[in-house]
Write a structure and sequence with these properties.
35% of the residues lie in helices and 21% in strands. It is of the alpha+beta class. It has a five-stranded antiparallel beta sheet with strand order 1-2-3-4-5. The protein has a five-stranded antiparallel beta sheet with strand order 6-9-10-11-12, covered by helices on one side. Helix 5 runs parallel beside helix 9.
Length: 247
């Protein structure tokens, strides 16, 4: 397992499930009560088979969009190993990259009933590609980052934004915070990527950068959308930006 991942969990009790071949299911249940049988079996696979299985699962769980499919192909070509750890803070799949110190962590997925429950807990038009991502991971982040919220945190942050008493600026306009749903937080800062319900490209829901400290959101109406303005027409467009290799 990548040394940076081991160091990330150095202050927690951590079990490298994918590197514990002699661990039996009964023992794993006692050590990690939250571990499901499915993820335990996933941790038993040979590393190359597990990587291929997870890559194909990404393909099958998310909408077929050629640009996104091509990106996932390129991303997994750079993945050295998909491992699994159980730590005090949770159970995670680990994605370590070839020749790089960066890594990603993702929590266990939600089942369809849990996704339906989540939809009922949030009064906001949740994009379908975002909801389908929960079938892969409930919470996903680069090591050290706050990252994409788990469902529980998403509900809490949605309520917090509804209760904000300040308005935000979109260019020269003022907008109410309850038009935003934060789904990602950057490194514990008051900087969020948020779905914006008044921007619905192609019938979906676009997302913008929101800085609470500055009281602004990125202006999606400019022609230069994307990485420079951090305004994206879909969740998957933003996810490509987030997962792309840092130059």
């Amino acid at each position: 397992m990548q040394e940076q991942i081991v160091q990330y969990f150095k202050n927690e009790k951590m079990i490298p499930l994918s590197e514990s071949p002699n661990l039996k299911w009964e023992e794993a249940q006692k050590e990690v009560p939250r571990l499901t049988k499915g993820w335990f079996e996933l941790s038993r696979l040979e590393p190359s088979i597990r990587l291929e299985f997870i890559r194909d699962y990404w393909f099958n769980a998310l909408p077929y969009i050629p640009t996104f499919r091509g990106f996932i192909d390129r991303f997994f070509a750079k993945v050295e190993e998909v491992g699994m750890v159980a730590a005090t803070s949770g159970i995670f799949l680990t994605y370590s990259l070839i020749g790089r110190s960066e890594f990603f962590l993702g929590g266990p997925p939600l089942i369809d009933d849990e996704i339906e429950t989540l939809k009922g807990q949030i009064d906001f038009p949740l994009p379908e590609d975002f909801l389908k991502f929960f079938r892969i991971h409930n919470g996903f982040f680069k090591g050290g980052d706050t990252g994409i919220f788990s469902s529980g945190v998403l509900v809490e942050e949605a309520q917090r934004f509804k209760e904000l008493e300040t308005s935000l600026r979109l260019g020269n306009e003022k907008i109410a915070p309850d038009l935003l749903l934060p789904f990602y937080r950057s490194f514990g800062l008051d900087v969020y990527q948020c779905f914006y319900s008044d921007w619905y490209p192609d019938g979906g829901v676009g997302n913008v950068l929101c800085s609470l400290s500055e009281g602004t959101i990125s202006d999606y109406r400019t022609h230069e959308k994307g990485r420079d303005y951090l305004a994206f027409s879909s969740f998957l467009d933003w996810l490509i930006f987030y997962m792309e290799e840092v130059k």
